[in-house]
Amino acid sequence: MLSKNNFPLVNKGASIKETMRIIDNTGLGVAFVIDENKSIFGAVTDGDIRRAILKGVSIEKAIESIANTNPIIIREDSKESDIQDIRARGDLKGKISGGGSLKVPVIDEERRIKDIVFIYKDKEYGFGGELNLRKEGIKKVLVLGGAGYLGSVLCRELLNEGYKVRVLDNLSYGDDGISDLYQNKNFEFKKGDIRDISNVVDAIGGMDAVIHLAAIVGDPACAADSKETLEINYFATKNIIETCKYFQINRLIFASTCSVYGQNPSPDEKLTENSPLNPVSLYAETKIRCERAILGAMDENFSPIILRMATLYGYSSNMRFDLAVNFLTARAMFDKKMTIFGGEQWRPWLHLKDAAQVYITCLKKPLEDVRGQILNVLSENYRVFEVGNIINSICPEATIEISEKAGDKRNYNVSSDKIARILDYRAEKKLVDGVNEIKEAIASGIIKGYKDPKYRTAAPQI
Fold first, then answer.
1. Who contacts 362 (Cβ-Cβ below 8 Å, separation ≥6)?
2. Which CATH number do you get for residue 222?
3. CATH of residue 14
4. Which of 88, 105, 134 is the last residue in one of the domains?
5. Residue 123 lies in a domain
6. In a domain, 460, yes or no
7. Is this model's pTM higher than 0.85 or not?
8. Whether residue 279 is found in the same domain as residue 417
9. DSSP code, position 66
10. What is the DSSP letter of 358?
């Protein structure tokens, strides 16, 4: 049973901004407005608030100005049939569809709230303590860059978890990753550019949380056009932050990178989230700027989470071969040889599906547990030559060439202790799993080559 201290109650004179904070803290998507006698005055949902903001209502205005003053209620002496009558009402069917629930306050003779009933479409009603309240609160998730390598995997995982998913993407590399999702009733696609504020405002409206993956990714791609990189990777992120704050989207999950650690003078030492940053590329520099801008914007309502991602690998419907594991596996399969530059440099590695699960875990966790956190996300650390050896053990027909030519200067070994503690998270897949996936996709003819520009074929300097 929910404790009365956890009821989403707000005084009618409280501001819209304060109310949104209460809604986010309880995770129910609704707050009940009470008067000076602690009797129910009305109800307001997060959707009501965002619609009001779209109409230009100030978030400093009193919540009573936008509350529904005739909410559905259940009296303490109500019968089972009264709840069934509510469920059967035609005007409520949309509110309890898709696994959602209608939250109805139970009141006494003085109209004071004694409990909350959750009414579902296809199953028995329940009281607060029987539910995962945090998941109840977040239903609609916007994925910026959702058609990309990670995004296309993440969208499927979100849909499998029962979320409604909207994607904003400019389709720089096509829509192969998400085209099969267009007919899914819980999936919505908007083509647009995160640099266009009108596209961002249109995409964010009505969402409960934002996952920001959109970026020019990787050192070679960023170096090719520094102006565009700054526009997309940094300045657009600042606009996204302000738009989230305006619409009271409090859970922004930002994809940063372990590349911010750059060249570690003691590479055998595992770096934590508090270790010094030493970027060696424009890509990493823009991510650091974004991290600082995001954390600098944090307030009592805006609660971002920053994930420093390891180098990804694994099969995706929007494939990339400018990532080390993927690239070396493709060369081993198609060219029967791999070239490794140096090889002693340390890197952290992470499978795509494990990466997707981290974002979902961040959506489910209580906001107070994750707000403002910076987390390293990885499965395992390997030197690059060890990665080559693992791939060679799976593709033994290939040869390995070690080049002394200077390659990528990054060299870092990263700790995952914090994410294990904060999120109780541990990656499930290993590097061998990703290599085997790609090998199978090539052997079966799903992947017929790796040099097509849609695969972002600027070879990584590994």
1. 251, 253, 305, 307, 370, 423
2. 3.40.50.720
3. 3.10.580.10
4. 134
5. yes
6. no
7. no
8. yes
9. T
10. H
Query: Which pLDDT tens digit goes with each residue over 201-219?
Result: 999 988 999 999 999 887 6
Query: Both 20 and 130 in a single domain?
Result: yes
The separation between CA 195 and the C-alpha centre of its own chain, rounded to angstroms, equals 19
- 162-189 residue pLDDT tens: 999 999 999 999 999 999 999 999 999 9
Give 60-92 pLDDT, tens digit per residue: 999 999 999 999 888 887 766 676 777 666 555
DSSP string, 180-241: GGTT-TTEEEEE--TT-HHHHHHHHTT-SEEEE--S--SHHHHHH-HHHHHIIIIIHHHHHH
Tell whether 202 and 121 lie within a shared domain. no
With respect to residue 262, please indicate whether it lies within any of the assigned structural domains.
yes
Full residue range of the structural domain in which residue 89 is found: 4-134
Considering the domain architecture, whether residues 170 and 55 belong to the same structural domain is answered as no
Number of residues written out for the chain: 462
For 284-340, what is the HEC assignment? Answer: HHHHHHHHHHHHHHCCCCCCCEEEEECEEECCCCCCCCCCHHHHHHHHHHHCCEEEE
In whole angstroms, give the CA distance from residue 97 to residue 57. Answer: 29
Residue 275 backbone phi and psi in degrees, to 5 = -70, 155
Q: Provide the token pair at 137.
A: 């609160």
* C-alpha 361: how far from chain center: 9
Residue bearing tokens 């934590």: 272
Burial degree of 274 (CB within 10 A; 0-12, 13-18, 19+): exposed
Can you tell me the distance from the alpha carbon of 59 to that of 18, in angstroms, rounded to the nearest whole number? 9
Nearest Cα neighbor of 78 from 113, 102, 106 is 106
